[in-house]
UniProtKB/TrEMBL annotation, chain A:
The keyword Protease does not apply. Belongs to the binding-protein-dependent transport system permease family. LivHM subfamily. CDD domains: TM_PBP1_LivH_like. This is Amino acid/amide ABC transporter membrane protein 1, HAAT family (TC 3.A.1.4.-). Its main location: membrane. It is found in: Cell membrane. One of its GO terms (molecular function) is L-valine transmembrane transporter activity. The keyword Membrane applies. Keywords: Amino-acid transport, Cell inner membrane, Cell membrane, Membrane, Transmembrane, Transmembrane helix, Transport. It comes from the Bacteria. PANTHER family: BRANCHED-CHAIN AMINO ACID TRANSPORT SYSTEM PERMEASE PROTEIN LIVH, HIGH-AFFINITY BRANCHED-CHAIN AMINO ACID TRANSPORT SYSTEM PERMEASE PROTEIN LIVH.
From TrEMBL, chain B:
It comes from Falsiroseomonas stagni DSM 19981. This is Branched-chain amino acid transport system permease protein. It is a multi-pass membrane protein. Residues 6-97 form the High-affinity branched-chain amino acid transport system permease LivHM N-terminal domain. Its main location: membrane. Keywords: Cell membrane, Membrane, Transmembrane, Transmembrane helix. It is found in: Cell membrane. PANTHER family: HIGH-AFFINITY BRANCHED-CHAIN AMINO ACID TRANSPORT SYSTEM PERMEASE, HIGH-AFFINITY BRANCHED-CHAIN AMINO ACID TRANSPORT SYSTEM PERMEASE PROTEIN LIVM. The chain crosses the membrane at residues 15-39, 46-65, 85-104, 111-135, 155-178, 190-210, 257-274, 307-330, 342-367, 379-396.
TrEMBL record, chain C:
One of its GO terms (cellular component) is plasma membrane. Residues 9-270 form the ABC transporter domain. It comes from Falsiroseomonas stagni DSM 19981. InterPro entries: AAA+_ATPase (IPR003593), ABC_AA/LPS_Transport (IPR051120), ABC_transporter-like_ATP-bd (IPR003439), BCA_ABC_TP_C (IPR032823), P-loop_NTPase (IPR027417). GO terms for biological process: D-alanine transmembrane transport; L-alanine transport; L-isoleucine import across plasma membrane; L-valine import across plasma membrane. This is Amino acid/amide ABC transporter ATP-binding protein 1, HAAT family (TC 3.A.1.4.-).
Length: 304, 425, 274
């Protein structure tokens, strides 16, 4: 029981990270109907920028503790957003309205570029970061097994919820959000109504990238080791989360992320760690086969 | 005015570049002797990169873009398509006599074998993506199935390459049907992502089923191919290839033999594809790519039609995998990662969907080019990825975007890319 | 005119529900053999839904669709998969033309003959090896296709991509493609939409020729069509079925339908709303 509870806590905190990345996939898919293959690598860049900022602040002795983490988060979001914007500008915008496979290939190309750029500029070795926020609250004790909610996990949950709240306000209550939803419905109509669709799409990438940066920062702080390759798996799993929740649906992306995080954690805890990725991929396949619109997605009726 | 605008544009690009590089290039974290991370600064590099971006962007604004715009206005319709047949025949002749060309050494034949393997994989995937319009991001799974089929059959049952080759193809086709059946009703990107998942699942299983596959250590000592029973070796003993033909034993024999083997396999793929395209089933694949709903209304069984494309593509992937295993004598899951699938798909898309010649040229350019840049070391993949983006942006329909009709009352005329569908399933 | 009492298609208490919306409510009618039957009604009357149920793109919630085949069997269409409906002898066209745009007109017509051709190849295997009677079968199929291209006046454009043809030609090519499947019932979804008066005239002639079997060597074929253009409906139809709000409100000869008070009310009602 205690073991299961601990897994639940771990699963939720992992799931929140997936959820944050998944929102980026879902937004981009919703607005331009493509899988942004490079999004996982944007997440990885976010983690690297956070790492650099963290080392600068802490080992430079400038700041530490929660204030440092907040500042790191802000730095990472800013610079990662710039990467999101650039990727869209270089690799996707010139191909808008073109052949469907072209943006996919150029996205895969972009993903290769980002990974190898980081490998070249930051090195291929894994980067360990000592825990920044050790300790936690003891929730329960069963024999020698202690159920702990670490401060780090609390930080993940609190910051994810905060970021998502701000983000939800942004897309539901602001003119930008309205413009985004209009582009999602019908881009041509939206532009006829005077919405700058290029700018709206750019902003979608910027927002998606900053959410991925939050996820990257939290991932770094939680696991303490990153390398240039973390983006691929995290990206595929987050995409799975987006699909599971129903692509195009923002609450769905978060829900999907939580489910994937929980499934992965419980699978590793009770069955086999080696096959945890198989679990995630199988769920992706099963969802798509039996429930192609996901949990909260819209039903699409084929018009003939 | 043009100069001021170009200058402003270049300044903007430089500002963006500065933002991109200031953290990721300017600051580098490294693991210190104590295991803790420390920072190094590299401001000169950032300055150089920004200067390079500024210069490049300015040059583009002033000279390249205006000229490119003019060129785009004139006809850009597939230069390859126009000289198609002659160019293809020329390539074929070069391919056939390649080992005999003076100055060609073992290393170059090895490279040619690699290129031909990718041409074959590209042609195999072209059936699925180019003709039937089904986006498959997990094609490498079938390559892996073929390679492991041969390796395991040879290891456990001592079967020879020539028995295993068809078996590897059949097994791969079987897996194609097995994986294809549940997912083929998915559309477009969803199909892509599920096939990606299947590719990864197969790789993870190969990685973790240590008892059968050797896990990350792979399988070594896979039997090399024989010349219809005559082994290649250096001993010159009776019963070897060299002895039988009265030749001086040489390691080149096997390489040349492997070269012709993959050439034949690739040509078989090409021959079957070209032939089947003129058959009702091939036409149905292309119709499926154009409009699936209309196909159903015409009484075409969409599921079996898709499955045949999937299975046939998988089969050629399986053949190529068996060849890969016998050539390397060693395989491990590392050879079958997603990046391989992406590479093969990139070859197909860059070549031009459905175009056999385009795929061959794309494979030569990409794989050959990739090997040429071996000296670039870790920069190589970076250049490779960037090239993928640039080629797509400049030629979204690939080298050959047009399509040749399969049948005509009069003379066959190429159909422009603007009409040809791209599939959504 | 060769109207007989036997129906080729019998729609029996067809009902279609989308969630809470009752789009088609127990509609029954027959398409008499050898006729052109028109299905008309104001916007939102459920015509397209009925049409999609007959051609297998929707599975009806209730009721049945029965087809009397060439050899006199009764086939329950709504139990078949959509491609088998086409094989049973129901061909259709689409409101938004769905040709294979990147393939030539001739190729479009050959794909429509996929079933028999595919069989002639020994399901792909025989022909790959160069055996079997595929060559002869393909030559016959090309002849058949050329016959239809002549009938629609597009023989000289046989090798042009379908996507490059003018709109009116595409409409006729789509009809020819449907006819190449050798149907016993041809279903047309607004065939005259977007045509100019002259093209409409050509279309009317083509449809009459298909009904009477004079367009090509093909046998006379019954036609079911949805159409908004009342001019063409009244001119060529032998039988008219009127739907409104998912129910059948009238059925009969065009002349009688024109006078029917329910029909007039339904159309005037729509006019008032607009």
């Amino acid at each position: 029981m205690a073991y299961a509870l601990q897994q639940l806590i771990n699963g939720v905190s992992l799931g929140m990270i997936y959820g944050l990345i998944a929102v980026g996939y879902t937004m981009v898919y919703g607005i331009i109907g493509m899988i942004n293959f490079a999004h996982g690598d944007i997440f990885m860049i976010g983690a690297f920028i956070a790492l650099t900022a963290m080392v600068m602040l802490v080992s430079g002795g400038l700041m530490e503790g929660p204030a440092a983490i907040l500042l790191v988060l802000a730095i990472s979001m800013t610079f990662t957003a710039l990467y999101g914007w650039t990727v869209e500008r270089i690799a996707y915008r010139p191909l808008r309205g073109s052949f469907r496979l072209a943006p996919l290939i150029s996205a895969i190309g972009m993903s290769i570029v980002l990974q190898n750029f980081v490998q070249v500029s930051q090195g291929a070795r894994v980067k360990p970061l000592e825990p920044q926020l050790p300790g936690g609250i003891e929730l329960m004790r069963e024999g020698t097994f202690v159920v702990q909610l670490s401060y780090m996990q609390m930080l993940i949950i609190v910051s994810t919820l905060t970021v998502l709240a701000i983000f939800t306000w942004l897309v539901t209550r602001t003119p930008l959000g309205r413009a985004m939803r209009a582009c999602e419905q019908d881009r041509k109509m939206a532009s006829l109504l005077g919405i700058d669709t290029d700018r709206t799409i750019s902003l979608t990438f910027v927002i998606g990238a900053s959410l991925a940066a939050v996820a990257g920062t939290l991932y770094l702080l939680r696991y303490g080791v990153i390398d240039f390759y973390i983006g691929f798996l995290a990206g595929v799993k987050a995409f799975t989360a987006a699909v599971l929740g129903g692509i195009g649906s923002l609450p769905g992306a978060v829900l999907g992320g939580l489910l994937i995080g929980l499934i992965e954690t419980f699978w590793s805890a009770y069955f086999s760690v080696q096959y945890k990725d198989v679990a995630a991929f199988s769920i992706l396949a099963i969802t798509l086969i039996f429930m192609p619109t996901g949990l909260l997605g819209r039903q699409e009726v084929e018009k003939v | 005015m043009a100069f001021a605008a170009a200058l402003r544009d270049a300044a903007k690009a430089t500002a963006v570049a500065f933002g991109l590089f200031v953290v990721m290039v300017g600051l580098r974290t490294d693991v210190g002797p104590t295991g803790a991370l420390f920072l190094r600064t590299r401001w000169p590099e950032v300055a150089m990169l920004c200067a390079a971006i500024f210069a490049a962007r300015l040059a583009m604004g002033l000279w390249v873009m205006p000229r490119f715009m003019k060129a785009a206005g004139s006809s850009m319709s597939g230069p390859l398509a126009r000289i198609g047949t002659f160019f293809g025949m020329g390539l074929l002749v070069v391919a056939v006599i390649l080992p005999a060309i003076p100055g060609i050494e073992r290393g170059q034949i090895d490279l040619a074998i690699l290129v031909l393997t990718y041409i074959m994989l590209g042609w195999g995937l072209n059936i699925v993506v180019g003709l039937a319009g089904l986006l498959d991001l997990g094609y490498v799974a079938f390559y892996a199935v073929g390679a492991y089929s041969y390796a395991l059959l040879a290891q456990y049952f001592g079967l020879s390459f020539w028995v295993c080759l068809p078996l590897a193809g059949i097994l791969a086709a079987f897996w194609g049907i097995l994986l294809g059946f549940p997912v083929l009703r998915l559309r477009g990107d969803y199909l892509a992502i599920v096939t990606l998942a299947f590719g990864e699942i197969i790789r993870i299983i190969l990685l973790n089923w240590v008892d059968l596959t050797g896990g990350p250590n792979g399988i070594s000592g896979i039997p090399r191919p024989t010349f219809f029973g005559l082994p290649f070796n250096m001993s010159g003993d009776p019963g070897t290839f060299a002895h039988f033909f009265g030749l001086e034993p040489s390691p080149t024999h096997r390489v040349v033999f492997l070269y012709y083997l993959i050439l034949c396999l690739a040509l078989l793929t090409n021959w079957v594809t070209i032939r089947i395209r003129r058959q009702p089933i091939g036409r149905a694949w292309e119709a499926l790519r154009e409009d699936e709903v209309a196909c159903r209304a015409l009484g075409i069984n969409v599921t079996t039609t898709k499955l045949t494309a999937f299975a046939l593509g998988a089969m050629f992937g399986g053949f190529a995998g068996a060849f890969f295993a016998t050539r390397q004598a060693f395989i491990s899951p590392e050879s079958f990662t997603f990046i391989e699938s992406a590479m093969i798909l990139a070859i197909v898309v860059l070549g031009g969907l459905g175009s056999q010649l385009g795929v061959a040229v794309a494979a030569i350019v990409m794989i050959g080019g990739f090997e040429l840049f071996r000296d670039l070391g870790e920069w190589r993949m970076l250049v490779f990825g960037a090239a993928m983006v640039v080629i797509m942006v400049l030629r979204p329909r690939g080298l050959v975007g047009s399509r040749t009709p399969t049948v005509a009352l009069g003379r066959k005329r190429a159909i422009g890319a603007e009409f040809v569908g791209e599939g959504r399933g | 005119m060769s109207t007989t009492t036997t129906g080729i298609l019998r729609v029996d208490a067809l009902t279609m529900r989308f969630g809470g919306l009752l789009a088609v409510d127990a509609v029954s009618f027959e398409v008499p053999r050898g006729t052109i039957t028109a299905l008309i009604g104001p916007n939102g009357a459920g015509k397209t839904t009925v049409f999609n149920c007959i051609t297998g793109f929707y599975r009806p919630t209730g009721g049945g669709v029965h087809l009397a085949t060439h050899d006199g069997r009764d086939v329950v269409l709504n139990r078949l998969k959509d491609h088998n409906i086409a094989r049973a002898g129901v061909a259709r066209t689409f409101q938004n033309i769905r040709l294979f745009a990147g393939m030539t007109a001739l190729e479009n017509l050959l794909i429509a003959q996929h079933g028999p051709l595919h069989k002639a190849t020994g399901f792909g295997i025989g022909a790959l090896l160069g055996i079997s009677g595929y060559k002869a079968a393909e030559a016959a199929a090309i002849d058949h296709a050329a016959g239809w291209l002549r009938a629609i006046g597009l023989l000289d454009r046989a090798d042009d991509p379908a996507g490059s043809l003018p709109y009116g030609d595409q409409r006729r090519l789509e009809i020819a493609r449907a006819m190449c499947t050798g149907p016993s019932l041809l279903c047309l979804d607004e065939p005259a939409a977007g045509l100019n008066p002259r093209e409409s005239d050509d279309l009317a002639k083509l449809l009459l020729a298909i009904r009477d079997g004079t367009a090509t060597s093909a046998a006379p074929t019954s036609i079911l069509l949805i159409e908004h253009d009342m001019g063409i409906v009244m001119r060529i139809s032998d039988h008219v079925v009127v739907l409104d709000h998912g129910r059948k409100i009238a059925e009969g000869r065009p002349a009688a339908i024109r006078q029917d008070p329910h029909v007039i009310a339904a159309y005037l009602g729509e006019a008032e709303e607009e």
